[in-house]
Each structure stands twice: as structure tokens, then as C-alpha cells.
Design a protein that fits this description.
6 strands; 7 helices; four-stranded mixed beta sheet; two-stranded antiparallel sheet; alpha+beta; 2 domains; 12% strand; 211 residues; flat
Length: 211
């Protein structure tokens, strides 16, 4: 647990950042009280700003420069290529988890050799949590940027209905019917889950609704 001074410092930083954001957009109406959240030694401030959403929605309805408001494009999601559009545009995957898998395994081995609930064990656990957070942030940043590019340039996007849960099921089987190529299927499952197809589709849906 952080000390009282650390907590107070975190809150002050969050408040300062919130005030800077308010001054930047020039809002007159906000939620009665900002909400603060602490996660992995980081403080986050949440504001309810309806005016910003309206302004953003009005601005983006015009779409990007040179974009066709009547274009329809099909999107094929994959592992080798994250997304391939019917017009030939291709997006390389970021593979955030795969790039950090070796470091994560090293951190987890170090954790297993430490005394449980000791100071060093807690520090190592924080390292693992921060690494997981970095992976999530990297993936989310990539998904937002990619979905924004596609949404700004096409009026309608047709996406295949992927059943990620069924696609990423284990192939180990059981005693009577053992599975085949279990290790290869396990690696494929990790790659499928590393893409974030479900979140990507959700972002495309609400960004298209804004437009």
C-alpha cells in the first residue's frame, strides 16, 4: 500500500492534469465531481464531458480529407495480417503479447523463486502487473488508431462474424480421444487472442455510429 503522502501526491497530479484538460477544451459544464482511480501505482481521473463528445461528433461527420462517404469495404481479420480490406489495404499486426512473452516468462520464473508475500515477491508481482498493463495499452493504442483510419475513410464496413471463443478452444482432447498438434494449436490460440478482434469490432461499431 502507498503511504498517505504518495496517495496525496497522486491525487494532486491527477487533479492538475484534469484542470489542464478542462482549460484546453474550455468546458462550461462538467460532472459535479471528477472520479479518481488508482491502478498499478498510477492515478487516473475520469470526467463526464458531454460537450466534448458532441463537438467531436459534429466535427468527424465530415470525415477525413478525400474520404468517400459512400464507399463500402469488406474487412478480413487474420493473424499474419491483422486486417485486409477489399480495396487492397493491409494492416500489420502489433502482436503486443508475443513481443513481451519472453520477458513475462522471465519475470514469472523470478516470482516463483521468491518467498510468497515477502517484499521482494510483491515488487516482482508489480513488475508483472506493469508488463501486462503495457501489453494492454500497446494493443489498445493500435486498435484505436487502426479503427479510426478505417472508419474515417469508409461509410460502410463489412466485417466477418468471427467466433473467437470457438476458434481459440484447446485441441488437447481427452484420454479416449487425444488431440493432435496440441502445441501448434496452443500457439495459434495465443496469436488469435493477442489480436483483440472483439474489441476492434466494438470500436468500429461505435466510431461508425458517430459518423
Amino acid at each position: 500500500m502507498a503511504s498517505g503522502l504518495e496517495k496525496r501526491t497522486g491525487y494532486l497530479v491527477a487533479q492538475r492534469n484534469a484542470i489542464a484538460a478542462i482549460a484546453q477544451v474550455g468546458l462550461d459544464t462538467l460532472s459535479p465531481k471528477p472520479h479518481y482511480r488508482r491502478h498499478n501505482q498510477e492515478y487516473h481521473c475520469v470526467l463526464c464531458c458531454w460537450q466534448v463528445v458532441r463537438q467531436h461528433s459534429d466535427r468527424v461527420r465530415g470525415r477525413g480529407a478525400g474520404a468517400s462517404v459512400s464507399s463500402i469495404v469488406g474487412l478480413d481479420a487474420g493473424v499474419t495480417l491483422f486486417a485486409t480490406l477489399s480495396d487492397g489495404t493491409m494492416f500489420e499486426p502489433v502482436n503486443a503479447f508475443r513481443k513481451n512473452a519472453v520477458k513475462l516468462a522471465k519475470y514469472q520464473r523470478c516470482l516463483s523463486r521468491k518467498t510468497k508475500f515477502s517484499s521482494n515477491w510483491k515488487k516482482q508481482q508489480q513488475k508483472i502487473s506493469r508488463l501486462h498493463q503495457r501489453v494492454a495499452h500497446t494493443r489498445n493504442d493500435f486498435l484505436h488508431k487502426t479503427s479510426s483510419i478505417i472508419s474515417k475513410n469508409h461509410a460502410m464496413i463489412v466485417v466477418e462474424d468471427l467466433k473467437v471463443t470457438n476458434m481459440s478452444k484447446s485441441a488437447s482432447g481427452n484420454i479416449k480421444a487425444p488431440g493432435r498438434s496440441v502445441k501448434a494449436k496452443s500457439g495459434l490460440n495465443k496469436s488469435i487472442l493477442d489480436q483483440g478482434w472483439g474489441e476492434f469490432r466494438r470500436q468500429l461499431e461505435y466510431k461508425q455510429a458517430w459518423r
